[in-house]
Design brief:
Layout: H1 2-7, H2 12-24, H3 28-36, H4 50-56, E1 58-61, E2 68-74, E3 77-82, E4 88-89, E5 91-92, E6 97-100, E7 105-111, E8 114-119, E9 122-131
Antiparallel strand pairs: 1-2, 1-9, 2-3, 3-4, 5-6, 6-7, 7-8, 8-9
Helix pairs in contact: 2-3
């Protein structure tokens, strides 16, 4: 990591995302290097009303990819979980936008019935198949 930082200054956005990911993964040594390189503290998560979070819960499917994603609330926080994968704790960016920074996943709810999953420059529309 030190060599990467010394070979060329990454963009501020890249530095900040890497720092937040290191904090999320509890990689204190990596986080410290990124902080010294000028990474900013991540913004705190936006507070989202529990009723809004509850409205998103359910199983979602996409016509674009054969993947079911379960959305659920645990301890007042929104989680997403693709079938056969570990659950991912999201960070609220707004009442309709949530991210899982370590995998560069963003989920944006159009309504309580659908969301767009954004990852790697691609967008996938999901519709609620089953309410919780």
């Amino acid at each position: 990591m030190q060599a990467v930082l010394e070979s060329g200054k990454p963009s501020q956005a890249s530095l900040d995302k890497a720092y937040e990911a290191a904090l999320t993964r509890k990689q204190a040594d990596v986080a410290e290097l990124l902080k010294k390189a000028g990474a900013h503290e991540p913004a705190p998560p936006v507070a989202v009303d529990a009723k809004v979070l509850d409205s998103y819960t359910g199983a979602y499917k996409s016509d674009q990819i054969p993947l079911e994603i379960k959305v659920f609330v645990k301890e007042g926080k929104l989680y997403i979980q693709a079938a056969g994968q570990p659950e991912l704790l999201t960070k609220a960016l707004s009442p309709t936008r949530f991210e899982f920074a370590p995998a560069q996943i963003e989920v944006e709810f159009d309504s309580a019935e659908s969301f767009t999953l954004k990852q790697g420059g691609q967008n996938f529309k999901f519709k609620k198949a089953v309410a919780r």
